Amino acid sequence: MEPSGLNGHGSISSLLPDRAIWIGADATDWRDAIRRAGDALIASGAVTHAYTDEMIATVESLGPYIVIAPGIALAHSRPSPAVLRTGLSLVLLGHPIEFGHRTNDPVRLVIGLAAPDDAGHVDALASLAEFLMDDVRRESLLGARDAATVRSLVREFENAAAAAEAPA
Amino acid sequence: MKILAVCGMGLGSGLILRMQAEKALKELGIQADLEVADIGTARALASTADLILTSEELAQQLVGVKPRIVTIKNFIDLREMVTKLGDAIDRS
Fold it and tell me: Is the N or C terminus of chain B more exposed, i.e. has fewer CB atoms within 10 Å?
């Protein structure tokens, strides 16, 4: 995957404003947990309310496959009129929630993804996956107490990635 | 060899699968074409692929397709991808 756009267009930070980060969110069940990720996407202006229902419908029809790793759900649906622009949201649940996944429950982190097309989010999603693959960064993120901590973890990761890409 | 990474919508977890598979193939020293498909078109595209990569949940909806299906539990665990992809390619 091309690592283009680090810190700029297509980076995690460019698609994840503070309003889209919610730490300690309360949710009663998996639908509610997805709603929190939808609320955060709405707050940042990426989607309208209808998109939250579309994300929930995705799991209702296809199952909890969005729980892509232990404790981590990637809530999303397909491009639709409810998507206003590319965006990410990040919700750390106050209490872990069962999504019905055989091996990756319970979920602590819900990442919301909104994509108006099939290209604009690719770099940021790839970066996010790289970020989450790093055990230390992932555990720090899961233990974050506020949005500022999330922001600085993301910045630190993006700066390290940019330095790694820079010509020697 | 052609590998189809299948997810629900074709733009979320499937992209992560493709990205991980690219890394795994590089590590295994294997050349392959990687394509992402959503579950709606995967069945039709399956006949063009040698291997399908997907989650356990979505694999249940692909029962009966020709290519071997490799299911991934943890999409951010490169070891799981390398091991399962390597095994499947050895056996095909």
Answer: C
